[in-house]
Amino acid sequence: MELIRPRGGGAAASVFSPFSAVRTSLQILNMKLSGLLAVFLLFCTSRRSYGSHPKPSCHYPPSQWCRTLEIAIECKVQKQCMELNAIKPNQTVPPVSVTLYYESLCPACRVFIAQQLFPTWTMLQDIMTVTLVPYGNAKELPSANSPFTCQHGEPECQGNMIEACIIHLTGHSAFQIINCMESAANVLDAAQPCLQLYAPSVSWTRVDSCVKGGLGYQLMHANAVMTRALNPAHTHVPWVTFNGVKH
């Protein structure tokens, strides 16, 4: 976990716990969906170790966990799958919106994406949307030559901008590409092959032009504005909101 230290040398932020009960102000069905997402994410948290790379929790990928009763039992998600199947046919409201504020080279962010958020989205993408905001604890500076400084140095600033450009250019394929990058041994080296794998119609030249041109800085500025607008302000990364609300 990456923490923001309070000014004046105070204690670090509390232990990262982004998944608590959904507030009663949400619509009833949205409450059920948000609660179900929290259950799945907490379930993934309890079943996966925090290493540098994802480790499967059963013999099937997350997208197949609810395909049959036998698979659900083997992967120990029978209760969650039954709840999911009970809710999905009655869906009458928009999908639950999950927004992740993160940094491209943050170890905790990488594990969270690869081991928790992406597997959950793979299973529940018909009732769940994910917005990725690569910025985190970066700072926006007035300097035209180096407008951003990042917690893990210049490589992270580059990674943040590459991912911001990929998200902008690839649409629905973006999360697959970002997960591919964050799951790799080297995030920056994986960018081009992951793009070619999941969005072959988007050339690396377009991403490179975005990163080196004005568009990349505009996208990063927009991410900075979104991150600064968080209420309550983020105290660590990864930072997750459900339907715009921190839990």
Automatic annotation (TrEMBL):
EC number(s) given by UniProt: 1.8.-.-
UniProt entry keywords in alphabetical sequence: Disulfide bond, Glycoprotein, Immunity, Lysosome, Oxidoreductase, Redox-active center, Secreted, Signal
Domain Saposin A-type: 51-91
GO molecular function, one term: oxidoreductase activity, acting on a sulfur group of donors, disulfide as acceptor
Top-rank lineage group of the source organism: Eukaryota
Pfam families for this protein: GILT, SapA
Compartments, as annotated in UniProt: Secreted; Lysosome
GO terms for cellular component: extracellular region; lysosome
GO biological process, one term: immune system process
PANTHER family documented for this protein: GAMMA-INTERFERON INDUCIBLE LYSOSOMAL THIOL REDUCTASE GILT (PTHR13234), GAMMA-INTERFERON-INDUCIBLE LYSOSOMAL THIOL REDUCTASE-LIKE (PTHR13234:SF45)
Subunit structure as annotated in this protein's UniProt entry: Dimer; disulfide-linked.
Function: Lysosomal thiol reductase that can reduce protein disulfide bonds. Facilitates the complete unfolding of proteins destined for lysosomal degradation. Plays an important role in antigen processing.
Assigned protein family: Belongs to the GILT family.
Protein name: Gamma-interferon-inducible lysosomal thiol reductase
